[in-house]
From TrEMBL, chain A:
One cellular component (GO) term of this entry: cytosol
Pfam annotation, one family: ALS_ss_C
GO molecular function: acetolactate synthase activity; acetolactate synthase regulator activity
Segments crossing the lipid bilayer: none
GO BP terms in the entry: isoleucine biosynthetic process; L-valine biosynthetic process
Protein name as catalogued: Acetolactate synthase small subunit
Swiss-Prot/TrEMBL keywords: Amino-acid biosynthesis, Branched-chain amino acid biosynthesis, Transferase
Organism ancestry: Bacteria, Bacillati, Bacillota, Bacilli, Bacillales
Domain ACT: residue ranges: 4-79
Enzyme class: transferase
Automatic annotation (TrEMBL), chain B:
Record's keyword annotation contains Zinc-finger: no
Organism domain of life: Bacteria
Swiss-Prot/TrEMBL GO biological process terms: isoleucine biosynthetic process; L-valine biosynthetic process
Span of domain Thiamine pyrophosphate enzyme central: 205-340
TM region positions: none
InterPro entries: Acetolactate_synth_lsu, AHAS_TPP, DHS-like_NAD/FAD-binding_dom, THDP-binding, Thiamin_PyroP_enz_cen_dom, Thiamin_PyroP_enz_TPP-bd_dom, TPP_enz, TPP_enzyme_TPP-bd
GO cellular component, one term: acetolactate synthase complex
Protein name, UniProt field: Acetolactate synthase
Pathway: Amino-acid biosynthesis; L-isoleucine biosynthesis; L-isoleucine from 2-oxobutanoate: step 1/4; Amino-acid biosynthesis; L-valine biosynthesis; L-valine from pyruvate: step 1/4
Reactions accelerated catalytically: 2 pyruvate + H(+) = (2S)-2-acetolactate + CO2
Domain Thiamine pyrophosphate enzyme TPP-binding: 397-545
Keywords of the record: Amino-acid biosynthesis, Branched-chain amino acid biosynthesis, FAD, Flavoprotein, Magnesium, Metal-binding, Thiamine pyrophosphate, Transferase
């Protein structure tokens, strides 16, 4: 099952290595990982999309992450109301004749063309991963020359629905 | 004026290495295990200038230093401190760091590093020790600014010794240790992401207490968490209050008196019949500070299949990792036991269970066939136990001799048993004994080692020679890598591939070349004549004790089998 896990980390040297090394050592599959600074200086946020077998594996993952000295907080936010986005850049082969056709395809996705050359256009799309997937699939027949995705980044919405938060791990309650 | 100038001069000549030495003194460190080299020259200079502050133990190989520090840490119950140089010095420490990580031994390891400006250029004696040790340390640091050094040392000791103990590496570039420094340094500690849970949740303690009241077949599994927490007294009270049989893990030996009537001995692959059957049949399993290692559990499908499992561990990640726990208790073992002991004591309805456990202990004890001419290794350990009245500090390598020592040396006190459990490191026992002896100069310290393992780190005999440390090395010499040989006999149709090593040095002459008394014993008669004095005198000794090669460790749970499928139980 796919889960979105975020880790707030102390931005010290080696922390990324420690976290990814730990996931590799314990044989967790990372589908994507994105890292960046947060509103607090010296604190970064990592967002992982992981594919785990079951809840026990997931519990291990969050516990092992939590154990790291430089990891301040780990949350599995999959079951929360979240905003999740990733950005993709897609360079598509296109001559001037089909450029407008591509424009028509990407428009419903609110994607934009950010670079044009004689043989190609570069499309920028942001959104949830499945939306990005869908657009890439539509562009594929034209010939994708280059593709880069940032991986998902996410956090919880300001307002959470009323029902009790689903906690996937907890030893203290 | 003059005085002020001299003060300035003094502070002006303080280097990063001096800051390190000051920080170590502040931590109360009195023993260092280390080996000098290019990148730690400034540090060694500062140690030289701080003469009298530390006992610096110089091994003959960095691996010897770190295993000695582990032995020291295990017996002294405080952090072992190691210094190694960059590159090969640091990589030679890797096995010991991994060993300490597996067995939760508190170590603070300082490694030299090439100067900051050349890191990443494949400089002479450069190795990426941060990258190498990341997966095998509780935490590691590379000092980037001299101001941080005192803070990092403080944090390193704190992390190594609190919560679940473990090794911390501090990598110090040479330009930082040689940098002259006068400004104020940062001492305060900043570890917002590290707050181990030490006190148990009262609700969970009540749950365990309730479960206990209903249990008909309770059993306690003691792990090394009890020893780390110094909770042996609390454990004894708890066991006495409820009369619950106790099974120990390999590393938990000594947390509860091994010779007590409620002790069923060690569980697991080479555990006793009574211990393993108790784990198999119990209806309440109270695990205190053990991590359900595969050598203990055997096939997880058959591990405590009918039991409610209560698991006390300071490391939340251990709970539910291998065996699901219905009563998880994240806590220091001492705090958890204290909370349990504060509950009202009720007598349990488990007489039948106790009688059954005792009957198994009496009917199916550990066993071997005594021989007139040959020394049976189990008997050898038994004799060591008798001659030292069970009071020695015992260290071992890994393998057959380790299992026999665990089976036949009944530890009644904690911090007396020093062995490489999780990593299973050959060559661990002898250097660990040096550290153990330094931590406890009063006790007899016996390194029970295999002939294979001893040959991996025997260069440390120099340390015994140098210091006259009375470590007794008993080589359980079967001229084979016994456990490998045993598995080849059992599971590979007796194809003894590279496991019989009959070319050996003359261990007596070897010892003598280090001016250490060496003894050759190959019959029970000689053993009874000479061993008592060897173990009682105040000199070091190397005892080449020839034992039966064909002897195997029993009972045994074959790989993939369950606790109830033991072979080699006394007929």
């Amino acid at each position: 099952m796919k889960r979105i896990v975020t880790a707030i980390v102390h931005n010290r040297s080696g922390v990324l290595n420690r976290v990814t090394g730990l996931l590799a050592k314990r044989q967790f599959n990372i589908e994507s990982i994105s890292v960046g600074r947060t509103e607090t200086e010296g604190v970064s946020k990592m967002t992982f999309v992981v594919d785990v077998e079951d809840n026990r594996k997931l519990e291990q993952l969050t516990k092992q992450l939590n154990k790291q000295i430089d990891v301040l907080k780990v949350s599995d936010i999959t079951d929360n109301a979240i905003v999740a986005r990733e950005l993709a850049l897609v360079k598509v082969i296109s001559n001037p004749q089909i450029r407008s056709e591509i424009q028509g395809i990407i428009e419903p996705f609110r994607a934009t063309i950010i670079d044009v050359s004689k043989e190609s256009v570069t499309v920028q799309v942001t959104g949830k991963s499945d939306k990005v997937d869908a657009l890439i699939e539509l562009l594929r027949p034209y010939g994708v020359k280059e593709l880069a995705r940032t991986g998902l980044t996410a956090f919880k919405r300001g307002n959470q629905p009323q029902q009790a938060e689903v906690k996937s791990y907890s030893l203290l309650n | 004026m003059k005085a002020e100038a001299s003060v300035k001069e003094q502070t002006a000549t303080k280097t990063g290495a001096d800051l390190l030495v000051e920080s170590l003194i502040e931590q109360g460190v009195d023993t260092l295990f280390g080996y000098p080299g290019g990148a730690v020259l400034p540090i060694y200079d500062a140690i030289y200038r701080a003469e009298g502050s530390f006992d610096h133990v110089l091994p003959r190989h960095e691996q010897g230093a770190i295993h000695a520090a582990e032995g020291y840490a295990r017996v002294a119950n405080r952090a072992g401190v190691v210094i190694g140089t960059s590159g090969p010095g640091a990589t030679n420490l890797v096995t010991g760091i991994a060993d300490a990580m597996m067995d939760s031994i508190p170590l603070v390891v300082f490694t030299g590093q090439v100067a900051k400006g050349v890191i990443g250029t494949d400089a002479f004696q450069e190795s990426d020790i941060m990258g190498i040790t990341t997966p095998i340390t509780k935490h590691n640091y590379q000092v980037q600014n001299i101001e941080e050094l005192p803070r990092i040392v403080k944090e390193a000791f704190h992390i190594a010794t609190t919560g679940r103990p473990g090794p911390v590496v501090v990598d110090i570039p040479k330009d930082i240790s040689s940098e002259v420094y006068a400004k104020d340094v940062i001492h305060h500690f900043h570890l917002p992401g590290y707050q181990p849970t030490l006190k148990p949740n009262p609700l969970q303690i009540t749950k365990l207490h309730d479960a206990l009241k209903q249990a008909k077949k309770p059993v306690i599994l003691t792990g090394s968490g009890i020893i780390h927490a110094g909770a042996s007294e609390e454990l004894r009270t708890f066991v006495r209050n409820y009369e619950i049989p106790v099974v120990s893990t390999l590393l938990g030996l000594g947390s509860y008196p091994g010779s007590d009537r409620l002790s069923l001995g060690m569980g697991g692959m080479h555990g006793t019949y009574a211990a393993n059957m108790a784990l198999y049949e119990c209806d309440l399993l109270i695990n205190i500070g053990a991590r359900f290692d595969d050598r203990l559990t055997g096939n997880l499908k058959h591990f405590a299949p009918t039991a409610k499992v209560a698991h006390v561990d300071i490391d939340p990640a251990e709970i539910g990792k291998n065996v699901p726990a219905s009563i998880p208790i994240v806590s220091d073992a001492k705090a958890a036991l204290k909370a349990l002991n504060n509950k009202e004591v009720t007598s349990l309805d488990h007489k039948e269970w106790l009688d059954q456990s005792w009957a198994r202990k009496a009917d199916y004890p550990l066993w071997y066939h005594q021989k007139d001419e040959d020394i049976v290794p189990q008997w050898l350990v038994k004799k060591v136990y008798d001659y030292t009245r069970g009071e020695a500090v015992v260290t071992t390598d890994v393998g057959q001799h380790q299992m026999w020592a665990a089976q036949y040396y009944h530890f009644d006190e904690p911090n007396r048993w020093v062995t490489s459990g999780g990593l299973g490191t050959m060559g661990y026992g002898f250097p660990a004994a040096i550290g153990a002896q330094l931590a406890d100069l009063e006790s007899t310290c016996v390194a029970i080692v295999g002939d294979g393992g001893f040959q991996m780190t025997l260069q440390e005999l120099s340390v015994l020679q140098e210091r006259g440390l009375p470590v007794k090395i008993i080589i359980v010499n079967n001229q084979a890598l016994g456990m490998v040989r045993q598995w080849q006999e059992k599971f590979y149709d007796g194809r003894f591939s590279s496991s019989i090593i009959d070319t050996q040095p003359d261990f007596v002459k070897l010892a003598e070349s280090y001016q250490i008394p060496g003894y050759f014993i190959d019959s029970p008669k000689t053993l009874e004549e000479v061993l008592p004095d060897i173990l009682a005198n105040d000199k070091p000794a190397v005892v080449d004790c020839r034992v039966l090669q064909s002897e195997n460790v029993y009972p045994m749970i074959a790989p993939g089998k369950g606790l109830h499928e033991m072979i080699g139980v006394k007929p």
